[in-house]
Each structure stands twice: as C-alpha cells, then as structure tokens.
Write a structure and sequence with these properties.
Elements: E1 2-8, E2 11-16, E3 28-37, H1 40-47, E4 62-70, E5 82-85, E6 88-90, H2 95-98, E7 108-110, E8 122-126, E9 130-132, H3 138-142, H4 144-157, E10 164-168, H5 172-183, E11 187-192, H6 195-205, E12 209-212, H7 217-224, E13 232-235, H8 240-249, E14 255-258, H9 270-276, E15 279-282, H10 288-299, E16 309-314, H11 318-321, E17 334-338
Parallel strand pairs: 10-11, 10-13, 11-12, 13-14, 14-15, 16-17
Antiparallel strand pairs: 1-2, 3-4, 3-8, 3-17, 4-5, 5-9, 6-7
Helix pairs in contact: 4-5, 4-10
Length: 339
Amino acid sequence: MKVIRLNEPGKWESFEDSNFNKTLQDGEALLKVKKIGVCGTDLHAFKGSQPFFNYPKILGHELAVEVIDIGKGVSNVKIGDLCAVEPYYNEGENQAVRNGKPNCGDNLRVLGVHVDGGMQEYFKYPAKFLHASSSLSEDQLAMIEPLAIGCHAVDRAQISHTDIVLVIGTGPIGLGTIQFAQLTGARVIAMDIDDDKLKKCKKITKVKDTINALGDVESTLTKLLNGDLPTIVLDATGSEKSMMNTFKYASAGGTIVFIGLFLGDVVFNDPYFHKKELTLKASRAALSSDFSRIIRLIESGKIDPSPFITHRIKFDDVPTEFEKLYTYQGDLIKAVIEL
C-alpha cells in the first residue's frame, strides 16, 4: 500500500506499507482513497505554520473514498459505495458531545491534523462517519467537507431573507459560505483583498456585489447600502486584522461569525461593542447533518462545487509537485490529488 507522509515542514516521504492490516473491527469500513482535496491546513503544515500540529503526519481530510469492505454491524454503507468522509470524531464523550456539540468536544480528532489522514491508498475508519451518494462524482464528494465548514457557519449566523450578509475571504471556504448564504434569500456581498479572486467569486457564485478590502470599506458599504451596514458578517480569512475589522462593518444589532482562527487574543472596544449590541460567534468544523444536507443540495442542483477545482496533482507526484501550489497565488482555488 502506497503512503505519502509529511515528516517535517517541506519534507515528504513516499513508502510502501507492507504491514497494513485490513482486518476490520465491528462498525469499521475499509476504504480506498479516490480523491483528496488540498486544504489550507495542508498548505500551512507543509510550510510549518499550522497551529496545533505535530510531525510526522499523513495529511488529507477532504476525501472521496470507495467502500472496499465493511465490518459487522455496518448498515449505512455497502461495498462499492462512493462516499464523502466526515473527518472529525471524538475520543470519548464529554459535556459538549452530550449537548449536541460534537464539533467542540475536548477530545476532537481531525484526520490529517491530529491523526493520520487520507494520503494513502487505503485506510480503516468508523462507517458511521461515511456519507454515500449514488450520483455524485468523486470530485464533488471530495468537496463536501470544505463546503460543510461554510454550511455550518451560515447556520450559526441564523440568516433570514431580510438580512444583508458580508462574507470576507473568497477562498474555498468563503465561496461555500457565500453559496449557503444565498440559499437563505438574503442579500450577499463578497469581500477580499485580491481583485482576481473577487472576479472568480463573481463567476462561480453569481454574487452581485464585491468589495476590495484594501479600500475604505465602511464608506463603500454605506454607499452601496444607502447608509446601512451588513446585519451579518462572516469572516473566513483567519486574519487577525480582518477579524478585528468586522466590528466596524456590522450594523447595530448585527451578528459576527468567525470561521477562521488565528493564534492570539480577540480584542475589541467594549463600549463600542455594547453601543451596537453586537453578537459575536465562532464556528468550528461542521456537524454530521451538514454532510448529508450538502449531498442532497448537490444532487438537486442547488449547489455545485465543481468550479472550485482549478488544479490537479497525481498522487505519486505529490512530493515533487505539491510545492508548486504556492506559485499559483490567485489562480488557485482548490487543488485535488488523484489516486
């Protein structure tokens, strides 16, 4: 079985794992990896800038897989199914899990981050975290997890059709967030510091209004909105500066949702925060229900992540080709590794 592992920043190792044991425990499935979406987490890990990360690690958590075998008690998937993988699970149950917030569990583990992920031909995984579709392509299934991040964030924001929504950051997570916000019927505005990314955003999502964050954002927003400000602001940048600026962009009574994170403190002026009576929320990972919902939306044609994919890498070429992804800059939206 072929495996590609990141031993340290910038250092890949390809090897054959001849000791891989295909014996399954009850509830497990044996999976053949078909496609791997390259996440910002993978890019940061390669450069050595991913927080809470240890080496060596097999990367990969945006996965399309085929079910090769199933253990006893598995009923949600069958041999031959193509599935998206829900790459988060908890080692043990605590208050968050009991209260319906498994994405916030103290012992949450993410494939390719805390434990080895999908850059290998086969792996075993609890079948309850697999989401099958008889009609979606491998490409589409590999995009379910990044879409789920945006889907969960929009649910956290509790958007209604009367809201004005500002989504900051038009990478894959931001693009997905825009699409789910649009499904609510709200007016959606996209913002980024890269005009090329904003053009691609318009083409992919059909969003009408875009703003370059390097300009006078508050003035541009109030002019665009006839003196008003967005009632919902979702920040998908992971940039400290961008996230702190959201307090200026939200209207009185507005809601801010932080999708990305940075290593540091969130600092804001308390009187200003109270004056606007703002609500600040975080959004972490996604829920199992998000995966099945997204599959239904893609199957019905309401969401299509296929245009997100701009670059492809053959699995065997990862050690030599992966670093080239940093050179594409605004041309890169989502790269997919193909087995």
